[in-house]
Amino acid sequence: MSKEISISTNTSTYKRGAFILFEGCDRTGKSTQANKLFEYLQIKGHAVKFWKFPDRTTPIGQTINAYLTNNQELDDKAIHLLFSANRWECMPKMKNLLLGGTTIIVDRYAYSGVSYSASKGLDLNWCRCSDIGLLRPDVIIFMDLSTEESEKRGGFGEERYEKKDFQEIVRKTFALLKEKDDDDSLWKVLDAKQSVERLHEQIVEISLDIIENCSQLPLKEDN
Ligand code: DGP
């Protein structure tokens, strides 16, 4: 479910920015594609910003980083809430950018939050609670890849969650979230095994369509 946020403007020519989200398991090419889309839109003259979660630059993000790199232990519920707080601390800026007409490309968000934490055995509904009220994306580009394929990619296994069995559960949990979503047309599931260029073409097409179609629509909050 989602709640609308009104836009404080009277002009009929007003256009808000689009919230384009990339989600998926580790090593599925999200960051590569999010960056390529960012560069493409910038070159084409769109007002666009790139955002990555977790944002490891803030004090909360630094604790998350210490946890992910196995330098700090934290209770599962405590780290879940820190990931969520890391999103909340960015909300005012993200909202201002979108309402000001800037499109934001976001690499991971609350769907990762719920999938990774619920995959550890935490209750899925409990996991969703701390993210209620966050801005809702206009599209979720889900990069889908088998764990066998992602394991073959460089760097897999360096951080806490990069373990084959765990990633398998995370992938299933993402699928469950899509299934449970009231608006599953929000999700665009792409076969991440395709070439970088082929994926980029599809992502550009999806994104231009979203930018055009959401520009007159109100922003929404998850609830
Ligand atoms: P990345 O920087 O995209 O590689 O993400 C770092 C790791 O953190 C990755 O294994 C996914 C995981 N992650 C991202 N967001 C969340 C979250 O909100 N909660 C939990 N538990 N894990 C997350």
Automatic annotation (TrEMBL):
Descriptive protein name = Thymidylate kinase
Identify the metabolic or biological route this protein is part of. Answer: Pyrimidine metabolism; dTTP biosynthesis
* SUPFAM superfamilies linked: P-loop containing nucleoside triphosphate hydrolases
Molecular function GO terms recorded: ATP binding; dTMP kinase activity; nucleoside diphosphate kinase activity
Q: Which UniProt keywords apply?
A: ATP-binding, Kinase, Nucleotide biosynthesis, Nucleotide-binding, Transferase
PANTHER family assigned to the protein according to its UniProt record, in alphabetical order: THYMIDYLATE KINASE (PTHR10344)
Q: Which leading EC class covers this enzyme? A: transferase
